[in-house]
Amino acid sequence: MLDLNSSYSYLLWCRDFADTSVIARIDGEPAGFITGYTRPENPDTLMIWQVAVNENFRGHGLASTMLHELADRTGALRMETTITDDNAASNRLFQAFAEKRGAGFDRRPLFTPDLYPDGHDTEYLYEIAPL
Asked: Is the torsion defined by CA of 95, 82, 111, 88 positive or negative?
């Protein structure tokens, strides 16, 4: 299993956001997925919600391949995501994505710990454009 979130939520996501999400299978086995959506108030912006790669398939560029596939498929002009400081793999993934696309890269705090009831770390908004 790639993630412990509710299977129901993933079924809804697959129904409602299939065009802005991707799953990778290797030899029939789920190897990774990315969930995303276009921002309702800014439909040319692809917001990446979640990136997950099965530990058996990490280190081969699968996350990057899926990210580029979604950007190309959706025709988005901009990409956003949020990442905490301690998520080194995601920080590298999105920085490398921006560099490969020759896109601008901006990072700023979006949701700070005072907004969370559980002491969650700051989520930094990454804005990558133009794609």
From this structure: negative
